[in-house]
Task: inverse folding
């Protein structure tokens, strides 16, 4: 794509701004900020990746992954606002997911141990973990608001804190995994996924692109399960005081 063609894509942004102004939605400023940030961030990442790909330094690869995990954690923790210690729990869940998933991909020699494979695939896995974490805490707060009295009844009847919220945690884990599972059911029918589309546009054989997309979708399923279940294990104690009483609010 030429620079001129890339410049013309701003037409789509202008169209969104005009519609927002016309309907008085008030998102013109947010759209402009998002447009500028997206361009600056992506261009910066492009140069950084080019530098890392040339050096092939593992220390730089690990640093890049650490930055990705940190940004993902900071973004996902917004959904868990009000819960103490939520940041390190999200970081542990996403990091564990990344290590386990990439460990299998590399250990089974499914992908090559080069920056060109490690960084993009890790980025997608970490991003998926971030989304799952956000969904987890959104659903957890909703469940706790609607089932507070039920949980207190369980506690009054002698249930432990873990037993009292077991159903809540099961529903929360399930809800945070479902979008990934639903995505697998419709992939290729409703839309062509980003990685597959990118490879095809870049000139790759469609069958090769499909194979890599299958790899990503299957990895996402495992990553979603690991992230959600780990968060469930690490988070349930945050809902109670040291005396095993339900906290006042989330």
Result:
């Amino acid at each position: 794509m030429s620079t001129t063609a890339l410049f013309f894509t701003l037409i789509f942004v202008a169209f969104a701004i005009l519609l927002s102004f016309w309907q008085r939605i008030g998102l013109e400023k947010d759209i402009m900020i998002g447009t500028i940030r997206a361009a600056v961030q992506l261009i910066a990442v492009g140069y950084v990746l080019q530098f890392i790909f040339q050096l092939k330094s593992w220390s730089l690869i690990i640093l890049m992954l650490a930055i990705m995990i940190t940004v993902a954690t900071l973004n996902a923790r917004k959904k868990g606002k009000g819960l103490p210690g939520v940041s390190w729990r999200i970081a542990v869940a996403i990091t564990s997911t990344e290590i386990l998933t990439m460990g299998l991909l590399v250990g089974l020699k499914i992908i090559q141990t080069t920056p060109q494979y490690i960084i993009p695939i890790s980025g997608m896995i970490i991003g998926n973990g971030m989304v799952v974490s956000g969904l987890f805490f959104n659903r957890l707060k909703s469940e706790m608001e609607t089932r507070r009295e039920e949980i207190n009844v369980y506690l009054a009847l002698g249930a432990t804190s873990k037993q009292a919220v077991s159903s809540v945690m099961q529903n929360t884990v399930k809800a945070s995994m479902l979008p990934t599972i639903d995505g697998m059911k419709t992939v290729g029918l409703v839309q062509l996924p980003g990685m597959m589309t990118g490879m095809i546009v870049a000139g790759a054989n469609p069958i090769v692109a499909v194979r890599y997309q299958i790899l990503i979708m299957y990895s996402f399923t495992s990553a979603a399960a690991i992230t959600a279940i780990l968060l469930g294990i690490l988070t349930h104690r945050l809902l109670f005081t040291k005396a095993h009483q339900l906290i006042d609010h989330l």
